Amino acid sequence: LVWLLVLSLAWLGPALGGEDKDEELIEEEEKEKEEDEVLSDEIKEEDNVLVLHEHNFSRALSEHQLLLVEFYAPWCGHCQRLAPAFAQAATELRNGSSPARLGKVDATAQTALATEFGITSYPTLKLFRDGNRTHPLEYTGHMDSQGILRWMQRRAGPSATLLQDTDTITAFINSQDLVAIGFFKDLKGEAAQAFFEVAAEMVDLTFGVAEAPELFQAYGLSDDTVCLFKKFDERQTNFPVDPARGLDTAELRRLLRVHSLQLVMEFTNETSNQIFSAKIPHHMLLFLKKSSPEQLSLRDSFRAAAGDFRGEVRWPHERDTEGGFGTPQPQCPLFPAQVLFVVVDVTGHGADVLPFFGMTAADAPTMRLVKMKNNRKYQMEQDNFSDSAIRTFIQAVLDGKVKPHLLSAEPPEDWDTQPVKVLVGKTFEQVAFDETKNVFVKFYAPWCPHCQAMAAAWEELAERYKDREDIVIAKMDSTANELENITIHGYPTLHYFPAGPGRKMVEYKGTRDVETFSKFLENGGTLPEEPP
After folding, report:
1. Which of 1, 22, 166, 483 lies at a 20 to 30 A Cα distance from 366?
2. In the structure, what pLDDT confidence band is assigned to residue 163 with cuts at 50, 70 and 90?
């Protein structure tokens, strides 16, 4: 029996072992098959969008003259919202037999591609042209289907329409409220090529180009010039090209944006994007009630003052020989200071912006000048709203002779009775600049979810240090309070003001939890170095 058992095991063993080996072999073959599929350069599509990875990316570049690639993360909300618009644009481009295609890369899975192209945020869109992998172009259009479509079409076809005779150019100018036409004697020259580059970039503006001598003559031109034709304000604005220095693309874009706006804009839902995207450094705002004929009449003097502050049509290299524009000084910038004039109806779309200025509709009519780089606001105090008074006020602000109008709430009666001290603009300096105290301040916005998330930790920190006479934990609502020498750019912002004379403000950039806050305070306003 023992021998039979031994013989049976000897006979069955290899069979059983072979079965295990067969299963392992099958699993290995399936794994190799999966790897072969991943390593394939086959290009699959989802909703007409090419699905790209490191093994088919080169093939996609070689097969498509223009390829706009979205680098995305599956968990990214912005990417998820863009997906339908991206797919729609991809479908329209394909159905229109365009040489342009759209593709996508999961940057969280394809880390080699993400590293190669410097992807640090999602979504990031890059345009690859003619298979060039080393110098992709950043996408600068709107994040919607039509914006993507226009941006790609402008790059796929001629970016500017060739205008060959007076009838064609007249019809072209009359076809839109706003068109830009480049008059060049050599369409293959550097200036013309720079113009085409700008035309490809500014998809919201229609561009044409002309080289016929009779067209130069028809519009009073003798040299290469870019002309902006409008159906409002001045009908034609000329930007002559310096024959020695050529055409500066960045400056041409700036000039076209500035002069594409009406001399006086009305703040509406439709114009708000234009107003802010023009990047004009100063905004002069007239707040009024459009329903009041008396207040509405103020637009006349407002408009009369506007022309003096639009800025000159001059290139960066054009300098005066003695002082003035050619001598960069604080009061004499390289580019003339430009001011955009905007009318805000306090009972219409403008009602939403009144809290930003600490105003109500009852404050109208009134004027404010805003410096866009730091949101400093300047109030025109006088009741005289003549065009000369407006000019004088604006020039005084630009010359640094007017102090900003700072918002401040009234301090609560119990502002210092709780562990977290409540600061307002009026009380900030006396608390934060007290040389006997180490003051840690949270600048927040009531609506900010990040501020709300760290509120409990800030309260706990204050509770921990409430008996320390040398430490103050405070907070300030930066939507209702402003400071002359401290500008808050995001929420929450945490600043530490150490005790002692000549102290310097320190911005806290560590983790927002009680223990890290505490380490920061105990270490005198710096975080101790952690061991490797």
Report:
1. 483
2. very high
